[in-house]
Amino acid sequence: MDNTQSFFKNLDQYIRRLQITLGYNRGERSTVEERMAKMGIEPAADHPEALRYHNCFNHVLGKEGPDLIKGVDALVESLTVSEDVKPGKGGVVWYFIQVKHYDSEQHYHDLLLSHAGYVQEDGLVISKWGENRDGLTTPIFRHRLWDVPLGAGNLVYFSEIPPKEHIDQFVEKAMGRDTSLKEMTKKERASHRLYMNSANLHIS
After folding, report:
1. What pTM was estimated for this model as a whole?
2. Contact call for residues 149 and 17 (beta carbons, < 8 A)
């Protein structure tokens, strides 16, 4: 699956992402913003409220509760995505890892949804890195599209910000009040709940 946004086409970019990964993972959590600032990646100080969200997906959806990750792939599959961001419009960027995987029922998957962030009108991305746990919160950064740790993925698609009613419908399902989605996540839990089939994406 080819995508012109793939960072593997730029070795210098890959090396920078490796440096970002090492800088983010090494050292105390309390100094991670300082370490990233030395690499030109500044915390999004104007988004302090986002620190309460569990992870990047909750941040993008504006919803609290760690269980939301259980069905975020279903939400993405319901959106129309594009390989290119529309200049000056902003929206959401969804990061994927390209994989080859069969789940417990031998369903083929070739994408792993791994990260998400807001795209600003100037093209920079605001995203939350990591998950809140053990009483510690993870930071929100403002960064260039590929200035993210390697674990964020090697493929991106863009979409408009989902309407609030669409997000609310997704949240209701993700929290287990929809039996079909609840059963689906149970089956996929044996492999990984965010594996996806690119054939299910609506690409414009």
Report:
1. 0.83
2. yes
DSSP-H helix ranges across 69-188: 72-77, 164-172, 179-188
* Structural domain includes residue 140: yes
Residue with tokens 């100094």: 31
Find where tokens 């031998």 sit.
106
For 173, the domain range is 7-203
b (16+ CB within 10 A) / e for 34-70: ebbeeeebebbeeeeebeebbbbbbbbbebeeeebbb
Q: How many domains does the chain have?
A: 1
Neighbours of 26 (CB within 10 A): 10
For residue 72, tell me if it sits in a domain.
yes
CB 140 within 8 A of CB 69: no
- Cα dist from 148 to 47, 67, 98, 117, 186, whole Å: 18, 24, 16, 11, 30
Residue 167 lies in a domain: yes
Instruction: Give pLDDT tens digits for 13-54.
Output: 889 999 999 999 887 777 888 899 999 999 987 777 777 888
The verdict on residue 168 lying in a domain is yes
pLDDT of residue 67: 59
Q: Write b or e for each residue in 11-24: b if 16 or more Cβ atoms lie within 10 A of its Cβ, otherwise e.
A: eebeebbeebeebb
Q: Tell me how far the alpha carbon of residue 173 is from its chain's centroid.
A: 19
